[in-house]
Write a structure and sequence with these properties.
By secondary structure, the chain is of the alpha+beta class. The chain is built from 13 helices and eight strands. Bound molecules: flavin-adenine dinucleotide.
């Protein structure tokens, strides 16, 4: 069964089966690594993967039911991140039997963490224009070039690498997808500090780095097909997270990290669940709350609830947040019956980006001058907690600084609009299409 041909089981049947498995297998005294191994080899860590590739061939909706059931049971959820969400489905779709059996189990069991080495300084939206070169020498490929924006690169064991393997072919036809070992001195990873104060992503320099041909996923020069599988799963995941809220995403696992660099594999699994329960019991979730509830609370706290402009913006945030949730539910319902609504992931990402910007502006308007203060370290955070607005104001400034990320990653707003225009509305493509010109002959900056 392929990933596209997923089955949708009756929810109760699925929950019953998983519940019985959890009763037999969950033990809080296992290490995180031991627990994830059980979960992964039973197909519950990545249930959307095909059954013959360490999954269960479930639909995205059923996979969310699995995460929610594990969380409700009180067990630690599956490892989060790109190993399960992006690398495994790409390898399951394009890899050989040997690659599936060698590379997927450590990924779904959280033993290795993958990063995504796609974007380059000159190739982001135009990803097919990438210029990192891979040259074959027998069983080994030598890789030279630079990647950027590599989220989690400093914590990764493996990288999903796109490299140019035939510069004489048109740009989409000379790329190959590799699973490269990040633990080699020829790969230099330099974290980039963001305005949020975090260093989520990195520059990655590859200088005669090597990757065995055995780790080439798919045919030489056919990497664009594999890349599209990776990007499809990235965008679908974003769209479903946009509407799923916390409940569906295996929340317990959020705090347990995978991989050998910062992974929590040797720690006691039950401690992560206990930590989560303690957090949520302090902050009960009101399922009837408005999507603009935190803005309403902030406005009340800062005495701005009667301000007509603030009220209008809060109403906007409530309406758009509600529409976003309803759209996600509508899409989920249609997909559960085997159908689809073309363009919904693109519309959903655009709407989420719009809501993030609206909340950014609204939060800063409510905070006034307080919105100019942001803490960049633990001391600063402790100091700001004691200032007017406390933790709620800190959350609002953090949201404002982070709001720029989603409109860029996974395809910028403009690219989403291009996709909707060309593929959903059937509008003509942009003039000057260079898709058939050999990569070597493409016009370059400078
Ligand atoms: C938080 C974050 C995490 C990320 N993580 C990763 C990661 O782990 N791995 C990875 O490989 N990449 C990652 N990225 C990179 C991301 O995929 C790129 O930033 C994105 O594809 C845009 O590319 P760019 O930054 O080169 O901008 P450009 O492509 O140079 O775009 C610049 C501007 O031009 C506009 N533009 C470009 N082309 C068109 C067009 N044809 N029509 C209209 N407008 C256009 C864009 O919308 C944008 O406004 C991450 C980015 C962010 C923000």
């Amino acid at each position: 069964m392929t990933i596209a041909e997923t089955s949708t089981l009756a929810a109760t049947e699925l929950v019953d089966e998983l519940q019985a498995w959890l009763e037999e297998n969950w033990d809080p005294d296992l290490t995180v690594g031991e627990w994830w191994k059980r979960l992964g080899t039973a197909g519950w860590a990545a249930p959307m993967l095909p059954a013959d590739s360490y999954g269960r061939g479930l639909s995205r909706g059923d996979a969310m039911t699995v995460s929610a059931t594990i969380a409700r049971f009180g067990a630690l959820g599956a490892p989060m991140g790109m190993s399960i969400g992006l690398a495994s489905p790409t390898i399951a779709t394009h890899g050989t039997r040997e690659q599936i059996d060698r590379l997927i189990p450590p990924a779904v069991c959280g033993e290795v963490a993958f990063c995504q080495l796609f974007s380059e300084p000159g190739a982001g939206s135009d990803l097919a224009g990438l210029s990192t070169r891979a040259v074959q020498d027998g069983e080994i490929w030598h890789v030279n070039g630079q990647k950027v924006w590599t989220s989690g690169g400093q914590f990764a064991d493996m990288g999903m690498l796109l490299a140019r393997t035939n510069p004489d072919a048109p740009k989409h036809r000379g790329i190959t997808w590799f699973a490269i070992d990040m633990h080699q001195p020829e790969i230099d990873i330099r974290p980039l500090r963001e305005m949020t104060g975090n260093a989520v992503f990195n520059e990655v320099f590859l200088t005669d780095a090597t990757v065995p041909d055995a780790n080439r996923i798919g045919d030489v020069n056919n990497g664009w097909a594999a890349a599209n599988t990776t990007l499809f799963h990235e965008r679908s995941g974003m769209a479903s997270r946009g509407g799923a809220g916390e409940g569906g995403m295996g929340i317990g696992a959020r705090m347990a990290r995978s991989g050998t660099v910062v992974g929590d594999l040797d720690k006691r699994a039950g401690d992560f669940v206990a930590a989560r329960s303690a957090r949520t019991s302090r902050r009960p979730r009101d399922t009837n709350a408005s999507p603009a509830q935190s803005q309403i609370d902030l406005a009340r706290q800062f005495g701005r609830l009667e301000d007509p402009h603030v009220r209008q913006q809060i109403a906007q945030a409530h309406i758009l947040g509600t529409l976003s949730r309803l759209n996600a539910e509508r899409h989920k319902a249609v997909r559960a019956t085997g159908g689809d609504i073309p363009g919904i992931p693109n519309f959903g990402k655009l709407l989420t980006a719009h809501i993030l910007r609206l909340n950014r502006d609204l939060g800063l308007e409510i905070l006034g001058p307080r919105g100019m203060l942001h803490a960049y370290d633990q001391d600063g955070r402790e100091e700001l907690t004691t200032q007017p607005g406390g933790a709620a104001a800190m959350a609002a400034t953090a949201q404002a600084l982070g709001a720029q990320a989603l409109p860029i990653f996974g395809g910028t707003d403009q690219i989403q609009r291009n996709i909707i225009g060309e593929r959903i509305l059937g509008l003509p493509k942009e003039p000057g299409d260079l898709a058939q010109v050999p990569f070597n002959e493409l016009p370059k900056n400078g």
